[in-house]
Amino acid sequence: SVSLEDAFWTSLKDIATRRGLPLSTQIDAIDRARKTANLSSAIRLFVMDYFRTRAITSDTSTTEASRASSGNSSAPRPCG
């Protein structure tokens, strides 16, 4: 039995849908790859990592697109 907060269940279902997987298949994959004893914790970590990775990728893409549109394709320079 797995006990998760509603936000994690909703997010996990969303991830499985985006990947074209049944929820049970996604949970099985997390279960096989987990490094913690607790499946609920492994699912929470998986969901957090999935969206953290997407946020970083999105942020990087947005920054690069912004630089390209301003004609400045060089790396940002430190201020100060």
Helicity level, as a percent range?
over 70%
> Mean pLDDT, as a whole number?
87
Oligomer, anyone?
single chain
**Radius of gyration, rounded?**
18 Å
Secondary-structure content class: mainly alpha
Tell me what portion of residues adopts beta-strand conformation. Answer: under 5%
Q: What's the number of helices?
A: 3
Tally the beta strands. 0
Shape, principal axes of CA atoms: elongated
Describe the structure.
By secondary structure, this protein is mainly alpha-helical. 70% of the residues lie in helices and 0% in strands. The protein has 3 helices and no strands. Helix 1 packs across helix 3. The longest helix has 31 residues, at 39-69. The protein is elongated. The mean pLDDT is 87.
Keywords summarizing the entry:
single chain, 80 residues, mainly alpha, 3 helices
Offer a concise description of the structure:
The chain has 80 residues and is an all-alpha fold.
What is the topology?
Blueprint: H1 6-19, H2 23-33, H3 39-69
